[in-house]
Design a protein that fits this description.
Number of helices: 14
CATH topology of the largest domain: Rossmann fold
Helix content: 25-40%
Number of strands: 32
Radius of gyration: 25 Å
CATH superfamily of the largest domain: P-loop containing nucleotide triphosphate hydrolases
Number of domains: 3
Low-confidence stretches: 40-58, 65-71
Strand order of the largest sheet: 2-3-4-1-5-6-12-7
Distance between the termini: 43 Å
Mean pLDDT: 86
Oligomer: single chain
Bound molecules: guanosine-5',3'-tetraphosphate
Amino acid sequence: MTTDILDESRRRRTFAVISHPDAGKSTLTEALALHAKVLSSAGAVHGKGERRGVTSDWLEMERARGISITSAALQFSFGDTVINLLDTPGHADFSEDTYRVLSAVDSAVMLLDAAKGLEPQTLKLFDVCRYRGIPVITFINKWDRPGLSPLELCEELSERINLRPMPLTWPVGIAGDFKGVLDLRTDQMVRYQRTAGGATAAPEEFLDAATAAEAAGEDWQRALEESELQVSDGGEFKLDQFLDASATPVVFGAAMLNFGVKHLLDLLVELAPGPVPRVDVQERERPIEAPFSAFVFKVQTGMDRAHRDQVAFARVCSGRFDRGMTVTNATTGRPFATKYVQQVFGQQRSTVDIAYPGDVIGLVNATALRVGDTLYEGKPPVKFPGLPSFAPAHFAVARPKDLGRAKQFRKGVDQLESEGVIQVLRSDRRGDGTPVFAAVGPMQFEVASHRLDGEFGVAVDLQNLPYRTVRRLRDPAQRNVIEASRRGEVLTRTDGADLALFTDEVALGTVLRQHDGLALEHLVAGTD
Ligand code: G4P
């Protein structure tokens, strides 16, 4: 059993693709799955034409806005390896959600558009990876189109995010005239052939240096010279620096044409780390082969309108999961029977009977589970650290338009709060019936009001509050000091934290200057 668990865990690669919207994340996901056997169900990833409607975008709003908010995991096998690809929402307003997903991966692929390089959302997501020490492989996409030079792109990585680029391939042919890549580890040229619309895996030919020089002439020569320059300028590949997240292997490709995608998968198998023991709240490592443990990183309802269900997504950290086993929820100490367990990607679902460390299981109708909860089997108990809430920067008072629906309103708000769609703040002054929604980005409000309306039949009025700066108030007795200053307001979050809200840093500074000894702290180090 123990060897079974260790062997299975070693075969796992659990990662997410992080990118700015439009860099090609959906295209790459499809291309990756094309090279692999999708385990959950055939056809989980659809052709491009239907894509936006049927894969990971299921809420109407997502379709309307062309964004992906909800996220789940796609599992597929590639050779002997089991790949778990976790989907992250692309929009900055959902960075808290993305952060939670990234807490469940062992590595990430940073996807860049060759013409744009590092974009705002890539930078933010990368910061999260750095904060969590997640090793990152960089895939420079859209090389079939004109873009920046490979040297410029490498320079961006080292200059702007202080991440040492270690190219493993180098494009042969400038962006827009992409012939293939120089594989820096074999000194061969990998020549790609186009297939209609990239609909099938692109055939690859491997040319030795002499043949490549003949076939690609100046382009080959340039690839040799430029890559040598980069490698000698500190770009030599070092596995330990990839694993400690101080450097990133870089490869070039075109997801749409399926160029370089197989190589990316090969690298994930070869270089990316598998699951490692997770550290619990007492700072002890939970061995991979210990009895089953997992933590919930995402709760989602309303994915299937026909069933109105709720799915809690948990990442397995140790042991073997067998459907039907009874586990304990460390937060409540209560037992939890795992009868309905699924893998979910977009609208595709399939039952999961067995899962190993690195896998993601979707616990259906797990209404008792909240984001951050730990599940475990047997004794002694284990609890992993909760997932931090981000510092909100947008606040709005919420009230039902029809006061007769106050009960449904309360139920809906509780639900959205437990899923982490929004944070909910209350105060005696404002009253229980008019909570304040708090969000990292305003689009979270849109989602909340859309869902309250669609799923709970409550139309809501949202009145924006002018606050942008938030701190945690350590001593509740100091609440009056802030309220009396008339420059801020104190509200209590559902987790019990007292949050002091100010219009801006200037207002905060004034209050601090006037009141010595006022104890205010940042919400989460590294995330606000
Ligand atoms: P996202 O999920 O990161 O938002 O990006 P998505 O895959 O939707 O890709 C964004 C656009 O970039 C799409 O074009 C897609 O076809 C294009 N794209 C992705 N990979 C490549 C590539 O390797 N080369 C080129 N030239 N284009 C690529 P679109 O016009 O927005 O959509 P569509 O009409 O093609 O679906």
